[in-house]
Amino acid sequence: MILMAYSSYALQRMIDMCYQYSCKWRFEYNASKCAVIVFNKQRSNQPKQSWSLGSDVITETSTYTHLGLLCDEYMSSSILVDEAIKKLRGTLGSILSSGLTPGEINPLTLKKIYCSVVIPKAFYGAQLWSNCSKADVKGLEIAHRKSLKQIATLSPYCNTIFTLVLLDMDFAEDLMDFYKLQFLGQLCRLSPNLLAKQVFVQRLVRHITYGDVMMGYIPDICRLTHKYKIGHFIDTFISTGRFPGKSAWGHILKTSVKRLNQRQRESHLDEQCETNISLSLKHSNSDSIWTALKKIPKYSKYCYNAIRILGYSVSEQFVSACKRCGHFSNSHATHAFWLCAKTSVTRKELICKLYDAMDGETFRTLIRSPLLTQCRQIALFSTQVENGMFVNVHLLTTLHKLMYQNQ
Questions:
Q1: Nearest residue to 187 via CA among 233, 226, 137
Q2: What is the pLDDT of residues 15-24, one digit of tens each?
Q3: Alpha helices per DSSP H over 211-245
Q4: What does pTM read for this prediction?
Q5: What's the CA gap between 277 and 91, in Å, rounded?
């Protein structure tokens, strides 16, 4: 139960009324589980106030947990985001340490576990997160991205957009937006007789009609509906009281939010790579890498290797030492493909297989390309799928040998 008042005197009167009611009906309140938070408190050296519940004392506190959500006196969600980051890392770490090792389990299986167990636990109450600073969102994004790269057995420095397209996942901020809009549908479909519905409508109308300065859920909703161009549903709800049903609203969110963000990520990756790389990684595509892996799981380690090469080729490059020859290079894939002295025999074998598998013009175009682009094109060509089957299995095995022999 929550009591809200504009002054300490009014709050004390409300507490007295609750105490008198409990005495009349012979039940007790536990004062040790009660607390008072003072919002918009003026900064001064005044001591904290206390309130009485019968003969017991209720003290003032800066934070309080209500329904599993930690509230503070500044109406900030920083503490909640920090808790979400800890839950995200801790829950995934516990799952992976239980035997579900990345690289041995299909990444799509781990992704399902991540979405059904880790995300709901970490993002509990995300519908009401508000006033999040850029630092809070950035910290959550970093934890989310590192978790996805760990699932996909990719380097921590791998391109984030590539990882999201590979696993068909959203940014952490996009997930927060989706949950808030989903909650909007639940509020709008409540019975008009409920107090929660009446408070929500009154605050929404005040904010839209009079432009009242507010903090919290209402301003976030107005911003998100404008961002995803679905504000007309709010206008219709205010004027007529009508709102789409549960299934219809879910379909609207999928098309307006999830698919829009997905198309933006895929187009950004394709522009960066100057090729239609997202089509090969797309789960819904019948000739994608994932479709072939489900049919022929024995080629999984070779296919994961090709995916890592793709990740290297679209990511920012860092100088590192080769584990085989000891030479430093700013691209692991380029060095292993064309420069490492320890892979010269396998390199010749790869070139011969490429020459046999490609037509003359395609092979000449490939050879004239920059080294990093060659790595990307070879990885894409080796994972080419037709009718749900890998076309160039012999190239997959050679690529795996080229990247990991004598390491």
A1: 233
A2: 999 999 999 9
A3: 217-227, 231-240
A4: 0.80
A5: 32
